[in-house]
């Protein structure tokens, strides 16, 4: 609902800016040109354009960087894309775009010493939980319990079948204690600790 309202307001603002003769911003130039070539209004094209950008989750800047590093490497000139955001699914994303792991350097990976870790698919059974724990498998996560006490939840990476994304540890009252965050490549990347109020 919030996304739809935001896109509608943004589309109206772009249309009003053009009607008032104020011009368009660079991001609005593509919807402006498309609206001149089609029966759609600039507001309608802006909404469609932004939805496509949001769904792709990558702007033209990322696509340009990907194309540039591929071009450099095709001509045997070493090049890397350097990223600074903590992204546990980075190697899944670059694989989708046909970029090799050695063509990307993430600063978190570099300082964590995990830049060259090979990918290993981790499922709940690979966590080597104690044999007395019961595992109740769900669509998005598994509930791990010891008798009547829930010990942890093991969450899965969206779009996969049971690939570990996080482990949430709870106390005997069900309060969140900590969360282990797992990288796409199958290793524990970080841990978040929580206070009694459930905030970290």
From TrEMBL:
Q: Which Pfam families match?
A: DUF6198 (PF19700)
Q: This protein is called what?
A: Poly(Glycerol-phosphate) alpha-glucosyltransferas e
The alphabetical list of record keywords is: Membrane, Transmembrane, Transmembrane helix
Q: Where are the transmembrane segments?
A: 33-55
Organism whose genome encodes this protein = Lactiplantibacillus fabifermentans DSM 21115
Task: Quote the InterPro entries the UniProt record gives.
Answer: YczE/YyaS-like
Answer whether the UniProt record assigns the keyword Transmembrane to this protein. yes
